[in-house]
């Protein structure tokens, strides 16, 4: 299994540009999520999905859109990039949407985004 | 105030030495606590998980402890290796305006030869 994969690994955007960060998992996990990681802060939840066709907002959803048309894929769209969106973005997946201790969350390798 | 506080922010130790990383949390009620290891340029990987009824969990040279009464956890690394150089993140799941998972900012560990 490849686990959770993300593309691209690095990206530089200009303010106002849009782009999509790709995320895929091959573990047949129902739950997928996007986080951003900023220096000196813990990972913060942007959006999540509990299954195909179902998405919801996390802690910091503004400026981002998601969709979940298949179990495997969960892309994150930046609508109009701003310098405040400069961050490292992680996609993650786990089996269920509950907080069962045995249900480990698996993270992708991350996308480092810089907005100029 | 952060609901999950980790200390120290960074730590340098010599290869072969032991170290202990701390995590204090205010999330209540508490469900479970995980420690993750994050290598530079990679995503976090789960090391240990403990529920409120557990007070210690080991994974090789990594031993996590939990005191649910004082809301403190520690991660002890024994006989450190160069490959232990990474960030260690404490993650608490509990009820804070709904069930949520709160990530600490991490402790950056450098192991030197």
Give the oligomeric state of the chains in this entry, treating copies of one chain as homo and distinct chains as hetero. heterodimer
Q: If you compute it from the alpha carbons, what radius of gyration of chain A comes out, rounded to the nearest whole angstrom?
A: 13 Å
Major sheet summary line of chain A:
7 strands, mixed
**What's the N-to-C terminus distance of chain A?**
36 Å
Which percent bin holds the helix content of chain A? Answer: under 10%
Uncertain runs of chain A with pLDDT below 50, 5 residues or more? none
Mean pLDDT of chain A: 94
Q: In this structure, how is the largest beta sheet of chain B organized?
A: 6 strands, mixed
Relative helix content of chain B: under 10%
Mean pLDDT of chain B: 94
Using a beta-carbon cutoff below 8 angstroms, give the protein chain pair with the largest interface and the number of residues from each chain: A-B, 20 and 22 residues
Structural class of chain A: mainly beta
Radius of gyration of chain B: 14 Å
- The coarse overall form of chain B would be globular
Question: Got a strand count of chain B?
Answer: 11
- What is the CA–CA distance across the termini of chain B? 37 Å
